[in-house]
């Protein structure tokens, strides 16, 4: 990541023309830092999945910032990244993240074998966790669950 001077629409457009994505690091009771990131790296990270639930160490001018992506904006037509917001994480801080739910052992569920269906209401869970201990996913074992079980 590179620190950037200009802020606003004109500066952001100039960065995008150069193949960069404008971003900001804020939080932890420190001043916000405006940065720019390589378009290719951000594009891959966003579309790889789990972008908003992984911590990242960003090196900005020799200073390492431990951050988690909080939000990103995509072009409404072309779906390329326009801007990214990063939340700075302090030591021992707790953060809210959405974590994917994975269901295993569907073949070992008597209820599903007898024609029942697995009704998934939410594919993600909102968790408040330590920033150092964010789970990749929450795994639910369906072994032994019958029709009507939750």
3D structure, described in words:
This protein is α+β, with helices and mostly antiparallel strands. The protein folds into two domains: 2-90, Ribosomal Protein L25, Chain P (Beta Barrel); 95-141, no CATH class. The chain has helices at residues 9-17, 39-48, 110-113, and strands at 2-3, 20-27, 30-38, 56-60, 63-74, 81-88, 94-104, 124-130, 137-141. The strands form two sheets. It has a six-stranded mixed β-sheet. β5 (63-74) and β6 form a beta hairpin. The longest helix has 10 residues, at 39-48. The model has no long low-confidence stretch (mean pLDDT 92). This is 50S ribosomal protein L25. One of its GO terms (biological process) is translation. Residues 1-86 form the Large ribosomal subunit protein bL25 L25 domain. It comes from Devosia geojensis.
Summed up:
This protein has 150 residues and is of the alpha+beta class. 15% of the residues lie in helices and 45% in strands.
Task: List the SSEs and their pairings.
Blueprint: E1 2-3, H1 9-17, E2 20-27, E3 30-38, H2 39-48, E4 56-60, E5 63-74, E6 81-88, E7 94-104, H3 110-113, E8 124-130, E9 137-141
Parallel strand pairs: 2-6, 7-9
Antiparallel strand pairs: 1-3, 2-3, 4-5, 5-6, 7-8
